[in-house]
Structures are given as structure tokens and as C-alpha cells.
Amino acid sequence: MNCTRRNFLIGGSASVFLTGINFSSKALGQNKKNLIVISLRGGMDGLTAVPVIGDKNLKKKRKKLILEETLKLNSDFALHPKLHTFHDLWKNDQATFVHATSIPYTGRSHFDGQNLMESGGKIPYKEKTGWLGRGMMATNQIGEGLALTLPLPLLLRGVPLNDNYYPAKGSLPSKTVLETLSSSYKENGEINLQMIMDIIQKRPLSMMLAGKGGRNHRSLAKETAKLLNLNNGPSVAVFDLDGFDTHAAQGSNYGRHADHLKEINDIVEELRKNLGDSFNHTLILTLTEFGRTIKQNGGNGTEHGWGSAILMAGGLLKKAQVHTDWPGLKNKDLFEGRDLRSTLDSRAVYLSAMAVCFNTDPEKLRRNVFWKEQLPDLTSTLFTS
Amino acid sequence: MKSFFRKVGFGIGLDEKLPTDPLKWAQSQLDNVEPFTWKGSIPSEKEMRKKFGEFIYGDRKILRKKYKNDKNKYEGEKNKLRHKTGQKFFENNELTIRHNEAINGKSPVFERFWHFWGNHFAISEKDYLAEYSTGPYQREIIRPNMVNTFEQMVKDVSTSWCMIHHLDNSESVGPLSKWGIKSRETINENHARELLELHTISPQARYSQEDVIQMTYVMTGWQHKWDRKRLESGDIWFNYEMHQPNEKIILGKTYAPDGKRELYNVIKDLVNHPNCKKFIATKLCRHFITDNPTKDMINPIVKTWEKTDGFLPEIHKTVVKTALDHSTTSKFQQPETWALQIVRMFGLYWISKPDRMKYDFKKKPTDSQREIEWMLEELGHLPYRPAQPNGWSDFEEDWISPELIIRRLIFASKMANRGLIRDDNIIRAIIRRNFNKPEKIYKLLDSQKDYKNKLAIVCNSPDMLKA
Question: Measured between beta carbons, which residues in chain A are less than 8 angstroms from residue B404?
Fold first, then answer.
């Protein structure tokens, strides 16, 4: 029976979730494993982040967007220089890139796509929970999720008692206000509000005192590392970045897309620095709704495409590798004549990542999270257990 | 039934007359565009675009070159340019104009619909638009069209400088146009895709990628006038030399070449598409009534739409009627709406006096001139800065999290210092006018002694978070 701080203290309406036998790492006395997801909204361009080396088709189709300098990964792929922390980690077998991958959605709408990248489903707005939330629920990780955003992302919904962190200015009203409101929510059947009020009441004071300046990506990552490192702290964290929708002036080594890649790098750099040894038991991965067209458009930007890349870092990775079934960039290879084809359902990566981090059988997650869909098990290909 | 005053408005203040016929009260506010009552500066969209132009020209063409080897000097001069063009001032001025109407205006229901449409045709945070242009766009493009047809509103939005700049349409060149052949430049799908997806028929209409491309061709040529001094801040015009020639086929219908009128021809069909009516009616119900609108809420609105050819005042009246018919169904209120309801109902101090909103364009604005912006930022809801072109969410679950509720608790207790009348009888009277079941809230009020705690608990009660 695992009694983390949160699910020990909640009692009441949520205690029903504590009845199952929990094989989580904490219960088995192993090192706690952390799973950190960074959502990249707007459609991250996999070919800017992890460009293919020496492809004539790419050079011809996006003259203004080709990187002049890159960090070499292997004979076929390189890395955008703004992702230099990933390159350092690559040398220690702690970075992996999955390429030509996407969720199985080809509609090119941001909002449908973002909904599906989080819900893990196939019909926009049909599912009300996220794949991560369902995965946590299936493995009894209640009260383990932390979002570094103001709203709780769909990705984490589906398991109760997630917390979020985004330091506020000002101080809370007295304890009796919170207690009275909590019972008022209960009387009115406002279960969500009641659970949130309970989380607020149990917050460590340090989370209320961060104040101004604590909201940039680096500070949030630093604080996340601290919270993850607490024995009874959360083990799942979600960051949210936007601005990847570069229809105009996308840039190459410098410019809009590069600035946003730097934000990913900053987060990973701070996490690595501040997690210390627990970085060895951590997996960080990215999530985006689609990639971008091969061809540059009228404004030296790119349009909504399909295949993109997943960037991964952390000690739970098997080795430095670019895992891909590369489809090629000739016109005939492209999806609908314009996009990098996705040759791997990215949900297989997320399924396998959860299986490793939550110490569970991928089969169980396939059943409980992805409606028994045929997703390949990549645990032994990508991760160490 | 009294929650209706908050459901479609901002509640009834103590000094206001309590409407005897709530439906009439609400519907009578929807026929006319009331002029703004704000006594301070209300700059025109054109003036504000000029300021935007001065900033980007000054920064890109002068300062970056002049101080290319001195980063500190560059930053200092850029800050001066920011002040000179009011970059840190105008957004708050716009929020002040908007909130003055919500709090003190005579047509709060009209204001709620204005907020709705501004968010439907949202301008997301990009390229200093929130600093200079989003507010003026809301005032000059969205607001006057609220007494026109939906078709007219879509036309004006789609050809507005703000939306065209926001969604990159000036970057879109027909590959077979005169300019396209010469320059080998091509299209940018951004604006066309959102016109279909967000503004009119929604993906439920099942258009294809080819439809999006054809829509983009229709829109090629609609762009800002570019010149050396004003850069991209010039007026919108139709540049025939960039317009894709030949006929276009959208959703199975062929459109003959018709120059700038092509866009109008397509919009006419889009707004009459059954999915458009259903999509917009559902969004209206979702905003005012419930996260999950039912057919008996949506259908009357679609019916009015069909009967009046999409005449917005009549559509709004049906929405209000439907909201009244479902006044026991409660809807979680977005942070800005909730904050304005608190201010209006309890008669609190919120906006600065016009003379305190005077700006000298020399140094950064005073703290009090930026207060509204900061308070709304804390609540997680700056109306003119949604992260993406789909605007702010209307779903309750996007507004409920520990951090978001913490902000509401802190906000409400701070508001007690803004002129709250510290007398329980008066507070009870306010509650009585605005809530279906006041006794429940009296109990919460009485549970606290300190007025900061009293306001915090009342404002975060389930009945106040919803309406």
C-alpha cells in the first residue's frame, strides 16, 4: 500500500481509488521514476529540430530555412544548435530522438490536433481525459501529477488530485475560509472544486512564496526538480510551450522556431542540473500536434504538416539513437505530396514510456489507455527498465 | 431566476433599479450600439496602427542599425521608443474602456455579447498586436457589427488589418498570379484555414485540404499596403497582382473569377452553411448557458438565424430568451466576467479616473495605470491575449485548477479593500438581488468576521463561481 503525502491525506471521496494493490516503484522500495512531458503547441517542425543531413530535396524545398550550422548526431541526422543540452546528453546515451512520427491525425487543424495529442484518441473532443491521466489512473498514481501551467491540461485529466504550480502574487485568505468553502463545495456536489480546495489546503508554504519572477521556464523547471525530488512529491510533470506555429519568418539557426527550441532546451538543462542523481531515473519527452510542410511557404515559414519528431532525454533511455523508419523526402514519399510521412504512431512511444516509468505491463496500458489499439511495444527498443 | 442577471450580464448593483421584467431588460439592450461612456482617450484603430508602425520602423530600421555594436544602448533607446509609442500603456487603456462599459454602462448584456464575439474572432498574442491593435479592432470592427448580420461581421473581420496581420494573409501569394509567376512565391494557408475552422463552418463541415487551398487562393491579394516608412502597418487593400486567377472550387461549388468579390461570394455561402449556424449557436449556448448545450437550446437560435438571415440583434435576443428558459442550468464564469460581476454588484473601485489615465509618452506608465492588466494576468485571463487563435476556452475544466482557484481567493480578498461597504445588511441586500438562493450565501457570509475573508468566501462560493 503506498501512502504518499497526498493520497494519505485526502481521505473522503477519493479514498475509493486507494483500494487497488499498487505496484508502483515507491511501494517496492525502488528509486522513484519521473516522467516529464513537454507539450509543444502550434506544430513543432521536426526537420528544424532534427534535420536530415545532406538531403537535396530538403535543400531545394526550403531554401531560406536550411540550418547553416548543426550539431552532428550520426551519419544521417543532426541537431539544431539551440538544443545543445540534448547533444551533451546524447554523448552519455541520455538523449534519443524518434523521427517521422505523429499521432494518427492528418486533419491539420491545431485545435483538433492538440485535443488529440492530449486525449490520445482519434475523434476530436470525444474523450474528456488525457492519455497520461488515464495511464496514471490505471497504475494507481493518484495525486502524483503536477502541471507547470495555470490551467490543468487535458493531458493530465482522468486521474484525481493533480496539482499545478505557477507562483501567485499575494496571500491566501484564512484557513477557515478554505475549510468552509471545501464543505460548501461538497454540499453542492462540486467534487472537482472540493478536491482542488483540499490540495490547496495541503500545499507546502514554499509553493506559495515563490512570488514574482518565478514564472519563466527556467524557474518553473528548477522548482519542478525540487518538488520531484521530494520523497513524497509528484512523479509526473507537464510543461506547456506554445508559439511553434511559424507560418511566417520561421528562421533557421536564429529566428522564431529557434527561440522556441531554446525554451525546450532551457527546461531540460534546468531539470538535469537540479534533479541531480534522480535524472538517472527520469524520462523527459515532447509532444506536438503535427509537424510542418517540407516546403517553405510564401512568408518564409511553413504550413501545417504531419510527421514530426519526439525529443527525449533522461537516464531511463537505452542509448543515444535516432529511432525512425525514414520515409524519405522525394515528392512521391511525402504524405499528400507535402508532409513528412509519419511511419510510427507516436502514441506507441508514449505508451512505452508510461510502461517504463510506471513499472507496468504495456499490455495493461494498451487496454486501459488506448482502447486496445494495436500500438507496438517499444520499451526494450527505447528504454532501460 | 435572479442569477439570470449574472448569466447574461454582470449582476445588478445596489444603486441600480431591479428590473421587473428581466427578459425585457436584457432584450432591450441589444438593438443599438451604445457609444462608449469612457471620458478618457479612445484612440482610433488607424492612429494605433500608426503607433505600431512607428515602433516597428524605429526598432528595425533605425535602432538596430544605429546601435548594432552596443546592446545596452540599444535596449535603452528601444525602451524610450516603447514609451514614445505607448507600448506599455494602451492595452490597459483598452481594458479600461471595455470595463468601464461593463461596470458603469447601461447595456451590460450587450457588453457580454461584445466580449463573446471578440473572443470568437480572437486575435492571439503575437507581434505586439495586444499592445497596439487588438483593442481598437474589438471596438471598431467587432462592436459596430453587432447590429448587423453575421455575414457582414465575417466580411469586415476577414478584411480587417488586425486579422489579416494576425493570420499572415499578406504573406499569401497566388502562384499563378502575375507576381507569383515572377517571384515564384506561393500561398500561406493560415488565415483561410481559420476562416473555415474557427470563424464559420468548423471542421464538422468536413472540408478537405484541397478546400483549404482553394479558400487560400480566394483570399490571395487581400493584404496590408507595404511601404518603406510604415512597413506592414499600412491599410488593407486588394492587390490584384497577387491574386490567384481562374475559378476556385470550395465544398463542391465552383466560384468564377471575380477579383476581390470572390471572398465575399464564398463568405455568403459559408455563413449560410448549416454547420456554421449550428457551430455558432452551440458556441453561444456554451458561453452563456452550459458546457454541454442541448438541441432544445441550439435549435431556437438556428431558427432565428434562418428567419432573419443571420441578423445578430435577433439572434442575441433568442440567446437571452433561451438562457432565461434555462436559468436553473448554471454555467461556470470565466475569470474576467466573474471579476467584473464582483465589481459591479458590490460597487467596488476598479478603473482609474480619466485624468489618472493620462499618459505622457516619456516614461513607463504608473503602476495604477497598469493595474487592471496585472490583476487579470494573475487571474489567468487577459482577454486580448489568448495564446492561440481559437481564443479563451468556454469549458469549465479549463478554468479549474489549484492555481486558478488560488488566484480567485487572493483576488476576492484583495477586492475588499476597494470600497466594499462593510455592513452585512447591505451585503445581504446585494446578494438577495443577484442569487436564486441567497440563504446559502448568507450562511457563508456569517461564517467570517473579517471583511476580506467575507468577500473571499462569498465570491468563491459555488453560486458565485457559476451563474
Answer: 150-151
Closest CA to A350 of A60, A188, A136: A136
Q: How far is B346 from chain A (nearest CA, A)?
A: 19
Please report residues of A whose CB lies closer than 8 A to that of B173.
298
Q: Residue B94: which H helix or E strand, with range?
A: helix B90-104
Residues A155 and A56 in one domain: yes
State which residues form the domain around B412: 335-465
CATH number, residue A308: 3.40.720
B419 and B351 fall within a common domain: yes
Q: CA-CA distances (angstroms) from residue B60 to A250, B55, B73?
A: 17, 8, 15
Cα distances from B321 to residues A39, B1, B123, B146, B314, in angstroms, run 41, 12, 29, 18, 11
Same domain, B53 and B144: yes
In chain B, the residue whose alpha carbon lies closest to the alpha carbon of A199 is B402
Shared domain for A242 and A131, answered yes or no, is: yes
Distances (CA, A) of A311 to A39, A56, A290: 11, 24, 14
Tell me if B150 sits within 8 A of B178, measured CB to CB: no
* Last residue of one domain, picked from the residues B92, B124, B148: B148
Average pLDDT rounded to a whole number, residues B34-57 = 96
Q: Which domain holds residue A192?
A: 171-209
Q: How far apart are CA B218 and CA B232, in angstroms?
A: 21
Yes or no, beta carbons of A247 and B190 under 8 Å apart: yes
Output the CA angle A342-A344-A348, nearest 5 degrees: 140
Q: Select the residue of A110, A169, A301 nearest B388 (Cβ to Cβ).
A: A110
Instruction: Count the neighbouring beta carbons within 10 Å of the beta carbon of residue A374.
Output: 8
Residue range A260-264: mean pLDDT, rounded: 95
Q: Do A298 and B185 touch (CB under 8 A)?
A: yes
The DSSP secondary-structure symbol of B142 reads: I
State the Cα–Cα distance between residues A349 and A98, nearest whole angstrom. Answer: 8
Same domain, B341 and B441: yes
Q: What is the ipTM of this complex?
A: 0.89
Residue B289: all three cell numbers together: 448557458
Beta-carbon contacts of residue B80 (< 8 Å; ≥ 6 apart) = none
For chain B positions 332-391, those within 8 Å of chain A (CB to CB) are 378, 380, 387-390
Based on the fold, state whether residues B187 and B125 are members of the same structural domain.
no
Same domain, B260 and B346: no
The pLDDT confidence band at residue A7, using thresholds 50, 70 and 90, is very low
Overall domain count for chain B: 3
Asked which of B148, B182, B213 is the last residue of a domain, the reply is: B148
- Cβ–Cβ gap B409/A172 under 8 Å: yes
At residue A30, the pLDDT reads 65
